[in-house]
Every structure is written in C-alpha cells, then in structure tokens.
Design brief:
Blueprint: H1 3-14, H2 25-45, H3 48-86
C-alpha cells in the first residue's frame, strides 16, 4: 500500500471516520458487542488446545479481512480520483 493511501486509511480508522458512512453505526456497535459476547461464551466451552486453534483461526481471518479492507479502500480512492479526472 502506498504511503499516502496508508496514511488516509490510518486516519479514517483512528478517527472512526468510516462510521459516518455506515447506515446505522449503532447497529454496527451492537453487532460487534454481540460478536465479542459470543466469542467469550465460546471460549468458556473449549479446552485449551481448541481455544488456541480458534484464536489462530480468528487471527488469520482478521489478517485476511484487513487485506481486503485495504484493497477496497485503495480501489475506492482510485475510483474517486478517476472520477475527478472526468470533471
């Protein structure tokens, strides 16, 4: 990811700018809390090796999700810049 694009993405994430583009930020936060609660309940049911396996899987999933988010952000930025050229 190019440094200027990474800086824009970092700003959007750190300042939670992305929330203003969500239809229902409250629903997003409620879903995130429910997800965290479910994760805690699931961990309570698992033995240590299964907990480690689940955490490893979730870390890899988060890494893949971050790559997808970065690519989507970059694509949106590029599209916006291309549209500006048409003006």
């Amino acid at each position: 990811m190019l440094v200027p694009v990474a800086a824009l993405l970092h700003h959007a994430v750190e300042d939670e700018t992305y929330l203003q583009y969500m239809g229902e930020p409250r629903k997003y936060w409620a879903d995130r809390k429910a997800e965290d609660d479910f994760h805690d309940r699931l961990l309570a049911l698992l033995d240590d090796p299964a907990k480690q396996l689940l955490d490893s899987f979730l870390a890899k999933r988060a890494s893949a999700d971050l790559l997808e988010t970065k690519a989507t952000f970059t694509a949106g930025l590029v599209l916006g810049l291309q549209l500006l050229k048409l003006l």
